[in-house]
Amino acid sequence: MVDPHAYLGVGKVVDSDEALEKIGDGSVVAISGFNMAMTPELLIERLYKLYKKTGHPKDLFIIAETFPGSPGRGLDRIAEDLYRNEDKGFIRGMLLPYYGWSKSLQRMVLEDWFEAYTWTIGVMAYWFREVGSGRPGVLTRVGLHTFLDPRQDGGALNEKARKARSVKVKILYIDGEEYLLYEAPKPEVALVRASTSDEKGNLTVEDEGITGSLLSIAQAVKAKPRSGVVIAQVLRIARFGSLKPKNVVVPGPMVDYVVVAPREKHWQSATIDLDRRVSGDIITPIHRAMVTHHPLDTRKVIARRTLLAMMEDVVEKGGPIVVNLGVGIPSLVANVAVEEEVMDLLEVTVESGPWGGLPLLGPDFGVAIGHYAVLSIPDQFTVYEGGIIDAASLGFLQVDKNGNVNPSMLPGRLPGPGGFSVIAAGAPKLYFSGGFTAGRRDIRVTEDGLRIVSDGPIIKFVNNVYKIVYNPKAARKHVDQEVLYITERAVFKLENNGLRLVEIAPGVDLERDVISKMEFEPLIKGSIEEMDKRIFRMGRMGIKKEIMEAIRR
Length: 553
Description:
Elements: H1 4-8, H2 16-20, E1 28-31, H3 41-54, E2 60-64, E3 69-70, E4 73-74, H4 75-85, E5 91-95, H5 103-110, E6 115-117, H6 121-132, E7 138-140, H7 159-164, E8 168-174, E9 177-183, E10 189-193, E11 196-198, E12 203-204, H8 214-222, E13 229-234, E14 236-238, E15 257-260, H9 298-317, E16 321-325, H10 332-339, E17 346-349, E18 354-355, E19 358-359, E20 368-369, E21 373-374, H11 377-385, E22 391-394, E23 398-400, E24 405-406, H12 420-426, E25 429-433, E26 437-438, E27 442-446, E28 449-454, E29 458-459, E30 461-462, H13 472-475, E31 482-486, E32 490-495, E33 498-504, H14 510-514, E34 529-530, H15 544-552
Parallel strand pairs: 1-2, 1-10, 2-5, 5-6, 10-13, 11-14, 13-15, 16-17, 16-22, 22-25, 23-30, 25-31, 33-34
Antiparallel strand pairs: 3-4, 7-9, 8-9, 11-12, 18-21, 19-20, 23-24, 26-29, 27-28, 31-32, 32-33
């Protein structure tokens, strides 16, 4: 006699150990999560607890869509314990787009504990979808002539990875054009997260801030020839038939086990348990009281100048533009736009999926409030790689004489590219925004411009960057890009033969404060314009009226 409860899939709802015991030694495990958003924190911790208790599963190869955790939580918490105990048995390899939240994990990579690789987020998200379709990997131009290219590092971060090459990037030619094929071991297990599962395992994400790559990860694991195991962490179980079919992100037959987590292991982001604005149930208007006031320092000066560049794009288009704002200084552009009451002219997108509203910062990056749409991560990066957005602002650590950009990587510091590579390769208007020098410095913003009391000792405009993460020559071969490099004291424009100095801040000496602090000489043609003085003055710049009038003209 058939048990009707078994037919409905009631047996899928199990204790975490019962599900995790199905994971064998040496398994390739895919984990969802963009920082803490969509991260199955309970499953990650219980998997490691099971290993510590029994010694199994060991030698895991972990693949994640971004970084499933934040400082002290998720994967970082496991890495801290492994490093402290000098335990090298749990992980044999890792492929992550971002390692930056975990100092312990970066040390393990640099000390060659296991094979460590990195791809950019868009390629990683596409890869899950491609593997789920039975294809060998991702074919793209993204990464050509950068550190992701096999003629450079091929995404390998340490010696073990360079020797093993479990993760490969190959050069292919189609009609004489170069492409990169990204390949990695097919995942055998998925640890994913949703808000609700019904008795049959259908998954919905109504409480989450994003959807991530949830469906694509499940598809990659379930695809033939070796169909694997999908384990989902949820907050609650619903009766079969009570979930609206169009709300189901992963159909139940693709889910093997469901584990119910307590709220403390299922927050929307690093610091937010449950905020209905983050889940999109309440869409609030964005106003000045919602943003934290940032003092008028060099970071805000750079954000203001970047906003002015984007407002020029608004006028050129005759209305709102779609933009991406990266982490760091670029993320302040949204705050400045709110202060200036021009946020309605920017359709801000976050690489994790939200459209519109105000992106949250720091470890909460990835979720937003006041947004009106959320795409999956693969779909969002299609928007970026396809150049469907109008402009992007991204940070930089180094820029060289050819316009190549290194956003974050140095010897002893390997956070990975995050979403940078795809966004930079596809954006038609590209604004790299960052400080002109680095290190301890005293640069004061006055009503008359900048006063550099003591400058940073670290030069950022160098002859050759440490790692090429954006290569303008390769990108501009296929995308008609306009590129500016915006700092607090100078603005450069990318031209075919190098960087041309186009603006300088009031109060700054060209030779002493700019050229002598670069390893190469920029191009100088004719007169150099002075940066808009409103950028350096207290109070709002007051640009709304002129922008609206310019649009109407």
